[in-house]
Structures are given as structure tokens and as C-alpha cells.
Amino acid sequence: MKTQLTNIKSNIIGELKKIAGKSNVLTEYEDRYCYAYDATAIGEDLYLPDAVILPENKHQISEILKIANENKIPVITRGAGTNLVGGCIPLKGGIILHTSKMNRIINIDKTNLQCTVEPGVSVEKLQQEVEKQGLFYPPDPASLKVSTIGGSIAQSSGGPRGFKYGTTKDYVLGLEAVLADGSIIKTGGKTVKNVTGYNLNQLLTGSEGTLGVITLATLRLIPKPEERQVLLACFESIDEAAKAVTEIISAKITPSTLDIMDKNTMQTIEKFHQTGLPTDMDAVLVLEVDGFKESVPVQAGRIMDICRASGAKNIRISRSRQEADEIWFARRSAFGAVARLNPNVLTEDAVVPLDKIPDMVREIRRITDKYSLTVCIMGHIGDGNIHPNFSLDLRDKDQAKRFEQAAEEIFNAAIFFGGTLSGEHGIGYSKSAFINKALGPKNIELMKAIKNTFDPNGILNPDKIFARN
Questions:
Q1: CA 392/CA 384 separation, integer angstroms
Q2: How far apart are CA 425 and CA 422, in angstroms?
Q3: In CA terms, which of 35, 100, 164, 429 is 20 to 30 Å from 44?
Q4: Please, which residues have CB within 8 angstroms of residue 409's CB and are 6 or more apart in sequence?
């Protein structure tokens, strides 16, 4: 068992309680235990924080970081803990800074198509509130019901809609953040166009909590599409599904989502949730089209024609919001269904060029067969982002070792095919050992220099992203 390497002195705990309030500083073992984990399966190791603090505003965060920086205490910022690469795990103990109490939507500006929110607001809550006013916030990570805006920005999270609408980074106009020394800065602004100096806004976005603590975000919104329709196209081979994707894009049609599930994924979902997925097919495409009411049936019709010409054996199309939600329920059930097979699920996040998707899927299947592992493959095929979900029991040391070997080969394959390690989950702890494979030494040197400039004492989310020494 591994525990914290840092012990915060009682007088420092007293100072932290004065800043955040006694009830907002948790030091009892039972209170800290659950914060030793995030959604990443990490085996039996226990990385216990020394304290968990629930700040209520940026000023408290500033004062907390001043103390932490002066005493070289690690600080790990945490939202809902849905991170899948060990990004919220306190590897060196220290302070978990939990932003759940900073959960206000400050304003929704219909005129300027933007909103300002605190980091603890859930993605789904924001989407619901802006849609009441006829607006739309497209980023949709799979865990959107609980995942927070702060966490989404820290990871630059994506989701199925990334194909048409882009990911979180495309919607961040401005940020307020607290740096390691307690300084409060603002980056970006309230305008879509902004090339005044270096783009610190985008530097913080996707930095995984290693450069600063986000306390406020101004996000771009767009008008809500009038109509949407979901299609489920079934194919006997992954190559036919990939061909359909290529033909759809070549036909200048841009679905809002373009996802894929393989046979193992569908069979696993149907084992636990009867959703009507075709378990005899090798792959299905889950597509959603949106836009003006008049355009949606036209787009859907053209997509159906293309899918049939590419070999689709059956196409299911939603006729109501309920039917659309049923199809998406099946797609979003994948992770939960796989989690019921074994105690652990490890989700990888490789991304490759579109024309290499069939090659990548075949290679994943070859590698997992080689190491006798159970894998369910799904992902956002429209942007080349493939998610192999591994069902494991990490208590089995041999199986855990085989997974590590398989994961490394999958990363190597993604890079070989012109892709990289992550499309939306980030690097965190679990992929940091492989980052040298994806980036050149000069790139890493520059990134470490940036980290050192923002956080010279290395207190912010230490041992994440870069290879551990």
C-alpha cells in the first residue's frame, strides 16, 4: 500500500481552516479515502491526500495556494473525478482542491452568445440552462451528467459532437485562474477574435491542472439547432462501416455525431440492457444530424442512401425524441456495461487519421488476441478517436502485466499510423510513461519550461503528463 509522502503540519491545517472554514477542510481518514481515486482503475495502490479542501471562491483558492507554494505542498484540483488517466490521483499526497461548491452559472448572454460559469457547474446543467434560452453548448463528454466545466476545460474534453462542432477548447473564450503562487490572472476575454499576445487561454485549456486552478470561464454558445435525428446503421464488417464514413464526408454531409461500436461492445450492452442492438453485426454507426427542420430529413435520407450503398444491412432511424434518446442510451451504456464484466475497466483513447481506422481496429483486435484480453471497441469514428474498453481484474498480476504490454503496443500502433496517444482523455498519470513516444525531445523541453515558469516549485498536480523520473 502506498500512502501520502507529505505530512501537513497541524499549524498549516489550522491556517487552511481559517481561510476556507473548518467544515470545508477534511482531514479525517474516512473523509479523505475516496479522494485517493478517480475513475481510473489503478489496482491496489492507495494514494491518500493529507487534506481535502472545498473552497467557495477564488480568494480562498489564492490564499490556499500561497501557503501550499511556500511550504511546497502538492495541490491537485478536482471536479467530479471522472478522469480516466489518473489525472486527479494525489500521487504525492498533499491537498485535494475540490471545486464542487463553486457551481454557479453567473450569466447567460443571449446577445453576445456566451455564458460565464464557475468550474463546479456540470456540463449537463449548463446545457439544460442555455437550451431554455434557445442556445446550445455542444461539448458532450460521456460523463456529462456529472463532469464539470472546470474538469472539461482542464482536460479539453471532447465527445461525440466533436466531429461537427469541435471540442471544449473551441468554446473557451476567457478564463480566470489562480497560479501556483496565488496570483490571479485573466486570459482571453469576451470576444471570439483575440490575437493580443500569446494565447494563454488555450495554454491553460487542456493543461490538466498542472499550470493553474480555473475559477471562472467565459464560454462561447451557438444557436440551438431546430431539429435533430439519430440513425443506427448496421454493417457486417468494420471496413464497410469505415467506407460509409468516408463516403458521407466526401458527399459534404457533416453529421453532428459519427460514432462506432463493434460486435463485442453491442453484445456486452445487450447482456445487461436490452436496447435492440444487432449483436450479429460486426459494427454499427451511430449518426446524428441536426439543423433547420427542412434540412434534417434531407441529410438523413442522403446518409441512409450512402450507408446502403456501402453495405449496411439495416438502418434504424429515430422518429421522435424518445427514440433518439433510446439509441443514445445504448451508446452511452457501453462503459457501464463493460464495467459489469469484471472489477476493472480501462479505457484507452488512441486517435488516428480517418483512413487508418480499419487498420487500427484490426491491430487492436490482433494485440488483444495476442495477450488474451477482453476488449470492446467503440469511439468517435468521424474524427478518428478510438476507445478500446478493456475488461480486467487488476488483482490478477499476470492479467495486469498483459494489459500493460498490450497498451504499449496499441500506443505504438497509433503513432505508426500517424496518430497519437490521446484524442480527449489527456495524459495524466497512466500515459505519462509513453509521452516520449509521441513528442520530440525539444517539444517536451519547451513544455517543461512552460510548467516551470507557471509553477517553479512543481506543486500543481505533480508527476502528471511528463514521464516520471
A1: 25
A2: 6
A3: 100
A4: 367
Residue 467 has pLDDT above 90, yes or no: no
Burial class (CB in 10 A: 0-12, 13-18, 19+), 429: buried
Which residues are within 8 A (CB) of 252 and not within 5 positions of it... i.e. 6 or more apart? none
Quick one: pLDDT band at residue 216, thresholds 50, 70, 90? Answer: very high
Domain boundary among 204, 223, 242: 223
> What is the CATH number for 388?
3.30.70.2740
Q: How far apart are CA 57 and CA 449, in angstroms?
A: 29
Q: Report the DSSP beta bridge partners of residue 26.
A: 52
pLDDT attached to residue 468: 62
Q: How far is CA 305 from the centre of its chain?
A: 33
Statement to judge: residues 231 and 218 lie in one domain: no
Q: For residue 401, what is the enclosing H or E element?
A: helix 397-416
Average pLDDT over residues 133-159: 94
pTM of this structure: 0.93
Query: What's the rounded Cα separation, in Å, for the pair 97 and 203?
Result: 21
Domain end, chosen from 333, 359, 384, is at: 333
What pairs with residue 75 in β-bridges? 95, 460
Q: What is the pLDDT of residue 456?
A: 98
Handedness of CA 396, 402, 408, 413 (dihedral sign): negative
Answer positive or negative: Cα dihedral of 338, 341, 343, 344.
negative
